[in-house]
Specification:
This protein is of the alpha+beta class. Helices cover about 25% and strands about 30% of the residues.
Length: about 160
């Protein structure tokens, strides 16, 4: 099984759409580790601010299969590619066998780096990590509250290829 780190982002009805992306991931994969949720400025444009998070999950899917599934979910949530308004963006940041293989510096979106580092520090029992100051909280459809601190979610979902 591959360990994936996914970057999530939305700047159009961002809180609702981040919640929807997390709900979709929770229903598809049985275990998730979700970073803090932060607000970031859009890079290189006058678009609205984004909400961003990083999610870690294990899957039998190949990177190509998972990427295809992620793009399908973006489309289902109404993403219009090329628009400054982004309802849903789900990108594979890293695909590794274990957390120690993660290369935080190779993630080109700098705003994802501290969130990725946050999850890896939890997985490797590194207590030196300091959480982001601007984290915010949201509640999933299942009632689980996420965002301020990283959270592990285990569900009874069954992964299908």
């Amino acid at each position: 099984m591959t360990l994936y780190y996914l970057g999530l982002g939305s700047n159009q009805d961002a809180e609702t759409n981040i919640r929807k992306m997390l709900d979709i991931l929770q229903s598809r994969f049985d275990e998730l580790l979700v970073s803090s949720i932060i607000r970031t400025r859009a890079e290189g444009s006058r678009a609205a601010d984004y909400l961003n998070a990083v999610v870690c999950l294990r899957s039998e899917l190949t990177p190509e299969q998972l990427n295809y599934w992620c793009k399908q979910q973006e489309d289902c949530l109404g993403r219009v590619r090329g628009s400054l308004a982004c309802r849903a963006d789900i990108d594979i940041l890293q695909a590794v066998n274990q957390p120690l293989e993660v290369s935080v510096s190779s993630v080109r979106e700098a705003f994802f780096q501290p969130l990725l580092e946050q999850l890896v520090s939890i997985q490797t029992d590194d207590s030196s990590y300091t959480p982001p100051q601007q984290a915010m909280s949201i509640r999933l459809a299942t009632g689980i509250e996420l965002g301020v601190k990283p959270r592990f979610i285990k569900t009874e979902a069954v992964e299908t290829a």
